[in-house]
Amino acid sequence: MNPTELHERAEQERRRQRNLRLRLFLCYSTPCLSAGADRVKAVLDEEIAACNTDAQIDLEVVETGCMGLCSRGPLLRIVQADGSEKIFENVTPESAPSILDACLSNTEPTKVAQLSPDLAFFTQQTRIALENNGWIDPEKIEHSLARGAYGALAQALHDMTPEEVCNEITRSGLRGRGGGGYPTGVKWELVRKAPGERKFVVANGDEGDPGAYMDRSLMESDPHRVLEGMAIAGYAVGAEQGYIYVRGEYPLVAARLAKAIKAAEKSGLLGSRVLDSGFNFRIDLRVGGGAFVCGEETALMTSIMGRRGQPVPRPPYPAQSGLWGCPTLINNVETFANIAPIVKNGAAWYAGFGTEKSKGTKVFALCGEVVNSGLIEVEMGISLRRIVFDIGGGLPDGGRFKAAQTGGPSGGCIPAEHLDTPVDYESLKDLGSMMGSGGLIVMNETSCMPDVAKFFMEFCMDESCGKCVPCRAGTVEMHRLLTRITDGSAVPEDLQTLEELCRLVQETSLCGLGMTAPNPVLNTLLYFRNEYLAHVDERNCPAGNCTLDRIPLYKLPEHVDRLAILKERS
Ligand SMILES: Cc1cc2nc3c(=O)[nH]c(=O)nc-3n(C[C@H](O)[C@H](O)[C@H](O)COP(=O)(O)O)c2cc1C
Ligand code: SF4
Ligand code: FES
Hints:
Keywords: 4Fe-4S, Iron, Iron-sulfur, Metal-binding
Domain NADH-ubiquinone oxidoreductase 51kDa subunit iron-sulphur binding: 450-495
Number of strands: 14
Mean pLDDT: 94
Largest sheet: 5 strands, mixed
Radius of gyration: 26 Å
Bound molecules: flavin mononucleotide, iron/sulfur cluster, FE2/S2 (inorganic) cluster
Strand order of the largest sheet: 2-1-3-4-5
Protein name: NAD(P)H-dependent oxidoreductase subunit E
Family: Belongs to the complex I 51 kDa subunit family.
Distance between the termini: 72 Å
Low-confidence stretches: none
Pfam family, one: Complex1_51K
Structural class: alpha/beta
């Protein structure tokens, strides 16, 4: 297929869609599927089959990716030929026929909850990476083409040199969305300039943070967007082979990506002589075993090469020596999802979003104690308050905001006094947290901060690969101390030991997992030290979460050194 044919095929699909009287977009992504979207679809199919033939050819049901408001799923968006739309929430097999009937007869369905398209959840987002989510069937390449997929690749291949593509990405200010925030264009340029006959492009879709599902949703809902970003990267850095690495717990992602790769190859959008150019680019899928550490770039690459996924020291960095010793570009899937819009609309357009140092938008999985939990994409620099109270709709049941956890096991909890902080890389870091890959958990007064720190430490302890001692033994010891704090058996000196251990593990671990595992502890000690002290000194959990009197504490006479006794015992 050449660029003209690509354009014609897209236009043909757009024409087909414009001629439909009714389009029913049913969310068919994991959360809505687990809430029964497949049963709703079966009922809609039956109802449509019972309609007369004219009606049948006039409407279609589109099984889409995530629309965002996952907590209210299954969601069904109905769009009329004039563009007017209605969104129904919590759709069931029982309510689906009445919704369809009402839309066919242009009346309002009764007893079915509707979401207003004017809801702040929708209107206060800025969608770039997620712009097609909920509007296309990810398993139908024509749907993606109609929304402009592979147009930016055609533009890069036919109108730009690899150097120009790298420059455009640099000028856009895009930074890696995998957590570290490294400037993407700088990384691309390093790989482009690295000497070597063979180079590789890798998309990191491992996504192991607890509560995070941004990358899963992106890949499930718009796989061609990620593939197109990878292909543009391949052209820019001089690679002919790409790998997309997905964790084993994401079977739907793997199935949709495999289908998308096949469809793109069949259309000449991947493979040999892409879009009638001299550029060849293949993408292969690699499914990991689900270890969190395999998201770390060096571990991920050893896993792709068929070895045990364990980190190795850097330097050399992947850009110099990655897969099979060749220069390798590794980026997060959300980073790749931003590439096509930047090439299409220009670096200046993208740099117009966000703050001075954090450009563009960021996708977050907003969850926890918040009315509207789901997947959101917001402009960098938006305040946490707007995310939680406008987009998220505040806390349910009149709950009081206590903290928002960002950055997963490498991040921290941001307290209420910092609700107006702009959400960008630097501001979150200054608060002792981090942007991370995009998990955002809202907590109310019943969340106990030492217990939250213990939860993340337990995660790191379980996920530590065991290669280096500070992380392997340090996470176990930090977890033991946090357990003592939350079960009431800690002594005041435990806090000091905990802090010392945090610094030691931070400074001496081999990879990011160990280096950042102490962050949730240090950060909660910074903002919620009183809670730790209440546990240790008063055996009291202010949040009412911990049971502190399971281990009896005997009142000792004044002259007895309780600490010495405990130390001796242990
Ligand atoms: C323990 C650990 C887990 C990680 N998991 C992921 C992950 O799931 N996805 C991801 O993109 N990056 C992850 N990273 C960061 C990667 O090592 C790497 O920096 C990133 O993929 C680079 O892409 P970017 O520049 O687009 O952010 C992880 C890092 C560490 C230390
Ligand atoms: S820091 Fe932890 S996860 Fe990383 S290499 Fe050492 S033991 Fe493995
Ligand atoms: S999965 Fe349906 S709205 Fe997110």
